[in-house]
Amino acid sequence: MPYKFSGLLPKQKPARQNSFPDEITYWHLNFLINNPITQSTASKIESKFRETGDVKDLPKSRRPKITPDKKIDIVLSMEENPQSTSTLVASENEVSQTTVLRILRKENYHPYKFQLVQELNEDDHDRDRRLQFYEPTMNLCQTNPNLHQQILFSDEATFRLNGTVNRQNCRYSNRTNPHWIIMNIHTHPLTY
Fold first, then answer.
1. CA-CA-CA-CA torsion for 10, 13, 14, 19, nearest 10 degrees?
2. Kind and range of the H or E run holding 77
3. Of 16, 80, 122, 140, which sits most exposed with the smallest number of CB within 10 A?
4. Interatomic CA distance for residues 133 and 82, integer angstroms
5. How does residue 73 score in pLDDT terms, banded at 50, 70 and 90?
6. pTM score, two decimals?
7. Domain of life of the organism in this record (predicted)?
């Protein structure tokens, strides 16, 4: 025996128990529907109506909105500790790392990477050797502007025995580049 309901019938027509095919035929004939609905569509609409009392779709679940207070907390935590990672800030504020990165980007924060630079001192024991390399190299660069494309720079890995943090992972997040100079206490690295 087919399941009967009158949920698709208009209010003007007296409610009576019809099968899905009868209801669908009635709608096609009276409302001139170009794309006829199927029996499964009618069944889904009817079950949705019985469950919720309405045929509208339920509101979709969306990503939770971040409150302005939470945004301020994230920015303040980066102001207080600019060397903090986005992962740490995310866990402190109980939001995702993507949210932290998105907020910092909107607030014009940029992660600046520390770069190792060499300083020539008067008391540097390698100073003379560096100058002996520098002067002829600069002369070669002036005569051949494409010299840098003809040199192969090999990769170098440096390991320290005292547990110094890998400078590849060091970042500083701020709105402006601080141009910091970090004086390093030299340990003897193992270079391979």
1. -60
2. helix 68-80
3. 122
4. 38
5. very high
6. 0.43
7. Eukaryota
